[in-house]
Amino acid sequence: MHEHEDAFREFLAKRGLKLTPERRLILEEVFRQHDHFEAEELLFRMRQRKVRVSKATLYRTLPLLVKAGLLREEVFGERHLHYEHVHGRKHHDHLLCLSCGKIEEFFDETMEQLQEQICARHGFAPTGHTLEIHGYCKDCRKRRG
Amino acid sequence: MHEHEDAFREFLAKRGLKLTPERRLILEEVFRQHDHFEAEELLFRMRQRKVRVSKATLYRTLPLLVKAGLLREEVFGERHLHYEHVHGRKHHDHLLCLSCGKIEEFFDETMEQLQEQICARHGFAPTGHTLEIHGYCKDCRKRRG
DNA sequence: CTCGATGCAAAGTATTTGCACCTAT
DNA sequence: ATAGGTGCAAATACTTTGCATCGAG
């Protein structure tokens, strides 16, 4: 699976930046995640695997991966960022459970089209969006009656 | 316009909390804003008006106003919160311009209904949502051709 | 060989908390 | 009276930055 590494290398080369071992290790770990994650979480997992990269380098690398289009930045109302890699994942939106904290994903084509229409009405050229619905998930509704 | 104060007092009383002068001053300033604002910004404006409330009290009061349903919390991708009061304002979503930082508001009934449908499909009981579309506004598109 | 990159620790930013004193109910 | 509230300053959480050294291209 060197496809991401190649993409990253190309992105870096284009702006005179270098693909260092550290950046490669971070990229590797990012794509090992199968869900949303936070910076500190990633660092912790790398340390568990005995992979050592400084916090500073991690914080310097994540934005690069976002700019390279390999990572997506999500804001979940907390005061730190969440990320998710883009490996063959289509865009999707989120349902956040206020009770158990679970994050469900969904995709709805009608929703996407509707947003295009709204933007057109405002003369707005969209580059992306975030839709986050807060509430209570199926399980938590059952649990509390 | 004591209607908000009454609502806040009722909210507080219900849980054995008190309506102090400081809380009243913060509430007053919140409804003096006609747009989104940040905690530090509000504090600054209060200081300009020679109204003195400690930072700690402000940070302790804002969440109360949110819980009381008088203030809405918005997350604009930055790492600090934005607020907007709810005085007779209907729910709306946002268009964020990446170039000039302008925030346009919009409301679309079809969008609201569509979200209800999506939630129903997932057995999810929504309490609210945030939809933020990022891109370039009409003016900035003109400016850059 | 030359910039860009790294690690460390110190500095920032936004927000929260402990504590001694104060006050709305 | 008394539980809750206040200001202050110290603490926290997350992220950024300065600097001396290192290493990819």
End-to-end distance of chain A: 46 Å
CATH level 1 class label of the largest domain in chain A: Mainly Alpha
Number of helices of chain A: 6
Strand content of chain A: 15-25%
Describe the structure.
By secondary structure, chain A is an alpha+beta fold. The first copy, chain A, has two domains: 3-85, Arc Repressor Mutant, subunit A (Orthogonal Bundle), CATH 1.10.10; 93-144, Dna Ligase, domain 1, CATH 3.30.1490.190. In chain A, 45% of the residues lie in helices and 21% in strands. Chain A contains six helices and six strands. The first copy, chain A, has helices at residues 3-14, 21-30, 39-48, 55-67, 109-122, 138-143, and strands at 37-38, 71-74, 82-85, 93-97, 103-106, 125-136. In chain A, the strands form two sheets. A three-stranded antiparallel β-sheet of chain A has the order 1-3-2. A three-stranded mixed β-sheet of chain A has the order 5-4-6. In chain A, helix 2 (21-30) packs across helix 4 (55-67). The mean pLDDT of chain A is 87. Chains A and B meet through helix 5 and strand 6 of A and helix 5 and strand 5 of B. The first copy, chain A, binds a DNA duplex (25 and 25 nucleotides) through residues 13, 16-23, 38-40, 53-57, 59-60, 79-81.
